[in-house]
C-alpha cells in the first residue's frame, strides 16, 4: 500500500514542474484542461489500477487467514498492528498466540 502512495507522490512531483513549464507555452484555457486530464491520467488512474491489483493480490489473505478475523489486523495495509508485520498465507506474525476476535457490532433494525 505504501508503494502506491509513494509512486503517486513521485508522479505528482514530476507533473507539477511539467505543468508549470507548459503554463507559459500554451493558452490559459487549454492549460487548465491539460492539467485536469494529466492529473487524472498520470496520478489518479494509475493509483486506482495499482490499488485494484493490491486488493486482488491480497484477497485470499484478507478473507481466508486467521489474521483476518483478529482485532489487530489492518485490512487496508494487510498488516498485524500488534507485531507490525505483514501476514502471508504461510506466515502468521504471532503464530496464533496473540490472536483476539474482532468486536462485531450488530445493529438492531426496527
List the helices and strands and how they pair.
Blueprint: H1 2-23, H2 28-57, H3 59-64, E1 73-74, E2 79-80
Antiparallel strand pairs: 1-2
Describe the structure.
- The structure is a single chain.
- This protein has three helices and two strands, in the order αααββ.
- The model has no long low-confidence stretch (mean pLDDT 84).
- The longest helix has 30 residues, at 28-57.
- α1 (2-23) packs antiparallel against α2 (28-57).
- It is mostly helical.
- The protein has a two-stranded antiparallel sheet.
- It has helices at 2-23, 28-57, 59-64, and strands spanning 73-74, 79-80.
Short description, anyone?
It contains 3 helices and 2 strands. It has helices spanning 2-23, 28-57, 59-64, and strands at 73-74, 79-80. It has a two-stranded antiparallel ribbon.
Task: List descriptors.
two-stranded antiparallel sheet; 3 helices; single chain; 110 residues; mainly alpha; elongated; 2 strands; 4% strand
Structure annotation, total helices: 3
Structural class: mainly alpha
Order of helices and strands: HHHEE
Fraction of residues in β-strands: under 5%
Read across the widest sheet, the strand sequence of neighbours is 1-2
- Alpha carbon gap, first and last residue: 39 Å
Helix content: 40-55%
